[in-house]
Write a structure and sequence with these properties.
Number of domains: 4
Order of helices and strands: EHEHHEHEHHHHEHEHEHHEHHHHHHHH
Number of strands: 8
Radius of gyration: 26 Å
Structural class: alpha/beta
CATH topology of the largest domain: Zinc Finger, Delta Prime, domain 3
Strand content: 5-15%
Helix content: 40-55%
Number of helices: 20
Largest sheet: 6 strands, parallel
Shape: globular
Distance between the termini: 48 Å
CATH architecture of the largest domain: Up-down Bundle
Strand order of the largest sheet: 1-6-2-5-4-3
Amino acid sequence: MEIILKELAAHLAGIKGNPLPVYLAHGDEYLCKEAARVLVDALVPEDQRDFNLEEMDGGRVGASAVVSALFTFPMFAGIKAVVWTDSRVFISGATATDLLDRARQAHEDGEAFKAARLVLDFLTALRLEPGDLSPAEPLAALPDSVDRKADGPWISQALSLILEKGMTARSSDEAGIMLSALEKGAPGQNVLVITSPTADKRKKIYKHIKDTGLVVDCTVPGGQRFAEREARGRELSRIADQVLSPLGKTLEKAALQALEERIDADLRGFVSTLEKLAAFVGDRKRITASDVAKAVASRRTDPVYVFTGALFERKFEQSLSELASLLDGGYFPLQVLSAFANQVRKFLVARRFLESPHAAGWSMAMNFQEFKDRVMPGVDAFDKEARDLAADWVEEGFIVRAKGKKKKEDTDLVLSKGGSPYPVFLGLQTAGKFSQKELLHYLSLALAADRKLKSSAQDPGIILEGLVLAVCSGMNA
């Protein structure tokens, strides 16, 4: 059986002391914790939890230890719950990028051990050992399929901690160990509660849990369709009340909308931001949109760039999903096409740099610090040449500035327009995956799509889907 989180309480009200053998809550970490808390409250009386409840952290405890606890009879008669939080039971090569992203976030949050554990799980998913990665260039040994937006130094720190603490990879068959135990069946009324950030529905263990237990979907709608935005808004409003009411604070509707515009759909970050806002307003009871503007920096990624990011990573299904969300969410087809064409032009500039003498120190495997030290001076020299060339063109009349307009960057032929060099680093990494011929072909496809959108009766969505197919399949002229 599969349900969503808001249906869980009603389900539990009907079990009457006859729980299912296994529950899985998957999705957002904050909501998964809420689901586990609701399950424990319904399954184990508070006065029995010292003996009939075992909570085990999936970051530290593997399937074998959980199975041992699940097959141990409780101290007192009744239901015993074994809660396995943040389980790695669904780890696979397909979830490797997610593990690396979570490891980076844990490092940024100061959780060094958690980051190291996630890096070790990441390596296990790719069938690699810590010794396969060089501390000096930890990204060099990773397969090309892995997202290389990682910053090398923090991975080196995680590797050092793994070796220092003698951390070892858990069994690569966590799912098989747990599935065998669930098929055998735990004794008495012992119940397993699993929380996981991911849930691969193709795995046998997922199908077994769905057939014999309960799957609780704790994901937060992330698309731009009207229904998805409405559902996300309701969930954020509910959590805001849950967090702020004990603090004696309320959040005006405009403040909630302002928050949603500034953050991604990460509820742990959302809750943390709410707590900071409660402290920011002091004795005042109501948090306003003005408070959000003053206290919260924007972390949200424009949905159109989420689409182009997925497209240039050649993630076909995600690209189609993001495209549908954009069109359903009110983006004009020509607006989406323009974003695609602009990105192609930026990659063409990046390719021109990579093929120039200024890129002599560049390597796809280098980390960000190495890029800043070895390559960024070349980027600055490359951009100076482009600006000088553009200035000559203006002087010679090839470029004419419109009168009365505020002076902007004279040319789009530069890589860096000031600010952090990190976007330049990421742009070069992505551009390096495409040849100049491919990028020029994508521009010609964009031109053809533009003509069709302006002159054809064909469905704009079909036209743009054809563009997505061409890019993701690597079709060339």
